[in-house]
Design brief:
Layout: H1 11-17, H2 22-29, H3 35-38, E1 44-47, H4 63-68, E2 77-83, H5 90-97, E3 122-123, E4 132-138, H6 151-170, E5 184-193, E6 201-213, E7 216-225, E8 230-240, H7 246-257, E9 262-264, E10 274-279, E11 292-297
Antiparallel strand pairs: 1-2, 2-4, 3-6, 4-6, 5-8, 6-7, 7-8, 9-10, 10-11
């Protein structure tokens, strides 16, 4: 079980430098249903799974994955695998569009087919290869009914796999100037449970980016048993936040980088073309008097 602390400043730096457990890879490489995803470098890449890493005492992000279900009797082994994004036709569409254009209300294919309304939707063709996968060994303490994984656990695993699938494509989106990439948030998650998932056991959670309509991303997911049977399915909608520019972008950059807990005093840009922000060292201090000030220069 990997319980290392996350000390990387960007997701790209984390993906390329954080360790992946060789013991976990060897374990899943011996399982027929998982082996194809670990021995196909032209299609798949094994990556570290960010939620599995502890972020320290001050940051409670992803504690459920890094601590609660990172034990010998919950999820003792986990490996994340991403399909190379360029193999999904939607990657080219997202890269061409960027993150901050005013034409976000429609995502158009390179050669829009008639009628015009159809051009607002870009679909990826059906594909057997998932865009993102989690290989998991499940322990007995995940049970709801006897020897059966709790449905809420399966829902959480699906949601997190879909989230990391979104992030894989989001990282390939270009940004304009000093802007930050817009984030995406779950707007809808619809689940269908097909058959029980036994515990202990091994499952594969799969995710696909299926369609993009403007700021809306549509994804699908599956929980697949070791025997290849689909045990649960998910359909989800993710919505991208609107791009920020100028002053808003500067505030966003500061809040997402230097300070974990930040509160803004919106006085507008002063004569030095800067904005004052109110910084707290801990979230419980948010109701106290101002502790310190910082200046964020507009770039």
């Amino acid at each position: 079980m990997l319980k290392e602390k996350h000390t990387y400043t960007t997701y790209d730096e984390f993906i390329n430098n954080a360790p992946v457990s060789e013991d976990d890879i060897n374990f899943f490489s011996a399982i027929p249903c998982a082996k194809p995803f670990l021995n196909n470098p032209s299609t798949y890449r094994v990556i570290p799974f960010l939620p599995r890493f502890d972020r320290g005492e001050e940051d409670t992000t992803d504690r459920f994955f890094s601590n609660v279900i990172n034990t010998p009797d919950t999820v003792p082994r986990l490996v994340a695998v991403v399909r190379r994004p360029e193999l999904n036709p939607l990657a080219a569409v997202l890269s061409a569009r960027g993150s901050g254009t005013e034409d976000e209300k429609s995502t158009r294919s390179p050669t829009p087919p008639p009628p015009p309304p159809a051009a607002a939707v870009q679909n990826s063709p059906p594909a057997e290869d998932a865009d993102f996968l989690l290989l998991l060994q499940l322990g007995p303490s995940l049970s709801g009914f006897r020897d059966t994984v709790h449905g809420g656990v399966l829902a959480t695993l699906l949601d997190e796999t879909l989230s990391n699938c979104v992030e894989a494509f989001r990282q390939d989106m270009p940004v304009n100037g000093g802007e930050s990439r817009p984030r995406l948030y779950t707007a809808r998650l619809q689940l269908s449970f097909r058959s029980p998932v036994e515990t202990p056991g091994v499952i594969i959670v799969k995710a696909w980016l299926k369609r993009v309509e403007g700021r809306k991303w549509f994804l699908e997911g599956q929980v697949v048993g070791e025997d290849g049977t689909v045990r649960a399915e998910a359909q989800s909608l993710w919505v991208m936040e609107k791009a920020t520019r100028g002053k808003q972008a500067a505030l966003l950059r500061l809040s997402q980088s230097r300070y974990p807990y930040i509160y803004f005093r919106d006085d507008g840009w002063d004569s030095s073309d800067s904005v004052k922000v109110h910084v707290h060292d801990r979230p419980e201090n948010s109701g106290q008097r101002y502790k310190s000030w910082s200046t964020c220069q507009r770039k």
